[in-house]
Design a protein that fits this description.
This protein has 366 residues and is an alpha/beta fold. It contains nine helices and 15 strands. Helix content is 38%, strand content 24%. Helix 4 packs across helix 6. The chain binds adenosine-5'-diphosphate and magnesium ion.
């Protein structure tokens, strides 16, 4: 079972030097507000492609006031091997990754580790604009298909270029054709990967305990049906050139898609559910994600649950811990006090975080 067995954070936000030694059980990180709990989860999230759970830049992370850069050292263990991972940034430069001493891309890490998370800022995705939901869906999709990150980048790059032409009212067919072929190719991969991810999530939700509400997920598009055919996507882009030129931007494509969730018990859209129900839906999706990843990618994911337990009644807390222990994944869970996790007893490792002069201090209690 994949897990992080050693973790050292150096000059990482509130952590000057924090060392953790872990045995693969779920990890409970507790302590008062602002002590540096989420910072630890953020460090773990950087073991996956993308900007991590705060979408922060390398510069944001460097510990102030020193601002000399930061380093995460981790040992990743699975059934057969052990890997030494170093992720670091110097003087605000973008992060670098070393695997067993060799510089490599974060993509390489996804062969040995997958990370999924739920953080409080996601609570509002069902009631806010579509971009948060798209981001959420893309994060889920990426956990199954790491290459989704690169496809999305190529799509955005080509679209930015097309938008520039549109804005500047440039009418050069060759230029548009080339960009639109590129966009259509990426767009189709993006949508296919998203649809596939939704399929995996639905299947896995059926296998969760009844304590978590099943949510039907739908990829939704206000103006068009989802295009999964490259020729058709090229045609749609071509046809939309005149109207896109008036607006100065691309009006169709995967950057317009939305994720809908229907709370199945009540046949209600997630946006109309109570705050508690919305949270439960998110948990259900993340658990389903973890469950199917273990099956599909053959790599059991690390699950980061920031401040999740505080929102659940005792019964759902117990159900959550049962699911996590059943999955056998290294789940990192934060909360203000250990009592939130009392049901876990010795099935988890407990780490208390406090601060002394603005510097995080850790103590491992079992
Ligand atoms: N770049 C940074 N340098 C120093 N301290 C930081 C930096 N970024 C965040 N912090 C500090 O980290 C603390 C918040 O840590 P966080 O992990 O979010 O706390 P919590 O335990 O509530 O999850 C704050 O006190 C904040 O000032
Ligand atoms: Mg926090």
């Amino acid at each position: 079972m994949e897990h992080i067995s050693n973790l050292i954070l150096s000059h990482f936000r509130s952590h000057k030097i924090s060392k953790l030694s872990l045995d693969g059980r779920p990890v409970v990180v507790f302590g008062k507000n602002g002590t540096g709990k989420t910072n630890i989860l953020e460090a773990v999230s950087l073991f996956s492609p993308g900007r991590g759970l705060r979408r922060a830049t390398a510069e944001d992370i460097t510990r102030n006031p020193e601002a000399i850069g930061w380093k995460i050292e981790g040992t990743v263990k699975n059934r057969v091997s052990e890997y030494e991972v170093v992720i670091s940034s110097e003087n605000g430069e973008s992060r670098r990754l070393f695997l067993d001493g060799k510089r490599t891309s974060v993509m390489r890490l996804s062969q040995i580790l997958r990370i999924v998370w739920l953080v409080p800022s996601m609570d509002r995705i069902w009631i806010e604009g579509s971009s948060g939901r798209r981001q959420f869906l893309d994060r889920l999709t990426l956990s199954y298909f790491p290459e989704h990150a690169e496809t999305s980048l190529s799509y955005e790059k080509a679209m930015r270029e097309r938008n520039r032409l549109l804005k500047e009212k440039i009418c050069n067919d060759h230029w548009y054709n080339a960009l639109e072929i590129e966009m259509a190719k990426s767009a189709v991969s993006i949508q296919k990967a998203r649809l596939e991810a939704i399929k995996y999530l639905s299947e896995a939700q059926n296998n969760l305990t009844g304590k978590f509400p099943k949510a039907e997920l739908l990829l939704d598009d206000p103006d068009q049906t989802i295009i999964t055919d490259e020729e058709e996507a090229i045609q749609v882009l071509k046809n939309s050139r005149p109207s896109d030129m008036i607006m100065g931007r691309t009006s169709v494509g995967p950057h317009k898609s939305d994720l809908q969730a229907i709370y199945e018990d009540k046949l209600t859209l997630a946006k109309d559910c109570s705050t508690g129900e919305q949270k439960a839906i998110l948990i259900s999706i993340i658990l389903a994600n973890a469950k199917s990843l273990a099956k599909i990618s053959k790599v059991s994911p690390i699950v980061l649950l920031d401040e999740v337990s505080a929102h659940l009644d005792k019964e759902r807390q117990a159900a959550l811990y049962d699911e996590i222990c059943g999955l056998g994944v290294q789940a990192w869970m934060t909360g203000t006090g250990p009592e939130l996790f009392s049901e876990l007893k010795n099935k988890a490792q407990f780490i208390e975080v406090s601060t002394i002069d603005g510097i995080s201090e850790l103590s491992i209690s079992n």
